[in-house]
Design a protein that fits this description.
The structure is a homodimer of 389-residue chains. Chain A is an alpha/beta fold and 389 residues long. In chain A, 38% of the residues lie in helices and 16% in strands.
Amino acid sequence: MRIVDIRESTVPLASGMRNAKIDFRAMTASAVVIVSDLRRDGRNLVGLAFDSIGRYGHGGLLRERFIPRLLAAAPDDYADRFGTNIDPFKVWDIVMRGEKPGGHGERSGAVGLIDAAIWDLVAKIEEKPLWRVLADRFRGGSVETRVPAYASGGHYRPDGDLAALADEIRRSRELGYRRVKIKIGGAPLSEDLRRIETVLDAVGSGDDLAVDCNGTFSREQAIRYVTALEPYKLAWIEEPVEPLDYELHRELRAMMATPLATGENIFSAPDLRNLLRHAGLHREHDLLQMDVSLSYGIVEYLAMLALVEEHGWSRRRCLPHAGHLLSFHVVAGLGLGGHESAPDANSIFGGYPEGMSVADGFVSLPDAVGVGIERKSNLYAVFRDLVAT
Amino acid sequence: MRIVDIRESTVPLASGMRNAKIDFRAMTASAVVIVSDLRRDGRNLVGLAFDSIGRYGHGGLLRERFIPRLLAAAPDDYADRFGTNIDPFKVWDIVMRGEKPGGHGERSGAVGLIDAAIWDLVAKIEEKPLWRVLADRFRGGSVETRVPAYASGGHYRPDGDLAALADEIRRSRELGYRRVKIKIGGAPLSEDLRRIETVLDAVGSGDDLAVDCNGTFSREQAIRYVTALEPYKLAWIEEPVEPLDYELHRELRAMMATPLATGENIFSAPDLRNLLRHAGLHREHDLLQMDVSLSYGIVEYLAMLALVEEHGWSRRRCLPHAGHLLSFHVVAGLGLGGHESAPDANSIFGGYPEGMSVADGFVSLPDAVGVGIERKSNLYAVFRDLVAT
């Protein structure tokens, strides 16, 4: 079996959303298609991947380094030991050849896209959903039938009124979610407290509300916010400060009862090891949110999970960032703590493919082979031209 | 004054060099030209930047994000307070708009190129060498007339014999260098010891030889190497292990008398802060080698120097990685400890522009305005088409 082509395109994700740190008007993402020479139903079997969000598309790096390396490899170099499928670990080594250690950003997202498309292809060749492939290979087949998921939203919007926020939360609850997450830190504390109280009115309990600060606060602001939020007994406070300031995390951790969540801006196992060693996080209390796609993909995420468990944490403390479909399969197949969902199915990075449903805060497992991008029509639309050739 | 165009091209750096971690056959680098609307001698005044080495060109990221942001900015947004020059700090904020925290790699090199070209332009507008601009702005004009420099080389070559290594070192000494650095860790310890002894025969003293392991060793290998190297009393041992494993650095530091050098794979102030806090490095003994160009440029490097001094280190402990011309100006203008030189002037990233000379381990200060790329003919050749249009 041979990889005959790799195609990519950059997709604008223009949106009026804003969090405390950036707005999304110029945001882009990459779509990647890996074409194999295997024929199914009169077409070449393909692996698809769609980017995570927040770090822009990865087209330049894919074209400059990672696609050429994989296309230049001999099929024997990436064949699995039976010669009937592709070995994602071998692919990973091929694309990372000639890369220096350290500097884990950008390329980690480009490699993550290739890794994701390879896993989609691997699962299609096995004729299984990806969650099943992962559970079979790495969990002895064990899997739960429902995946915990929360609705991520509550961005600052240009209109920005509290009634619109309450409406959004109500819609999420009607869609079947229980727990929601909203953005804070992009407005004065008093306004953020009104946003929090508005949402609490809708969800009923602090345990069903998490808040995301997008790493925006100084030490003083963080202490002020964290202290002010304690009485609400929220599910967690996410990224209150600069994500690489481990010592400040340690200080905040010591003054908080609310769980602390971080990791979405940590893109490699060596960086995660430093977070686990130096940030003072509590393994029975805090949450790790590394993004599978932005962190070199599933191959590196498996190394991250090994580190997590080496440090005495349960993988249930892992809630990957960004709520893309790849992430859903990883959460389901590897038994993680839960999935972040963007509930708006009209957005290409929100909702679920047909055949999946949300109820009581859990998402059902899909039976489509691979990741299932083909079953979400507005997302698959961005692949149609790439696949057609 | 207005930036009217930004051009870039990717330059292959094909070379037979190899260190312990990667070979350089597919290595590339970016050349960047920022064109202003100021006229000098019948042409538009331009700022030039040439990449550092080891992390590939940055063309994709430049075209996707950083060049468009700067070209879209209004001249008032980047004018200095007198309106007669460009403010590099404002440019930095413009190009980093919409970028999330963390993930400091790749984009740090793309932004570093824009920052470098801007500083070249700023110095040309002031009609000064860049070292003079930096000394005037950040050191009250104080500057030493000679810059300590060492000759970096001793790569593994396909032919690889010791006589060739000894020849290379002799050539470096004849060129006026005293201290040299060679690669180790890409061969068995016994062979590396023969390489070291061959070089010691040529340079006479351990203090004139540093060794670079390119982050290749496991803990056990590192302990073996570090122990075996102690009797040679070398100038420093560079990157013995994975550059982000701060705890392992702390362990090695405690068992070494030889100075430990690291930092070339640390690309931001937040990452440097973690290195300074967690790696157990000794501020009167060890060396910091962050690469100016790969670390978001001079604007971020100034923030790094502030951190270095905040942690009680002298900036003399800083020896920036890679030996590019930008780095020379930073070392000279900001009073750092020394400059890494690639001695081979036939290489586009080696040697110095005309008018600069090496003697007794020191390099003279150039008087050409800006960085002086125009005065190194084989390097300027890669810019000719970019500048011509």
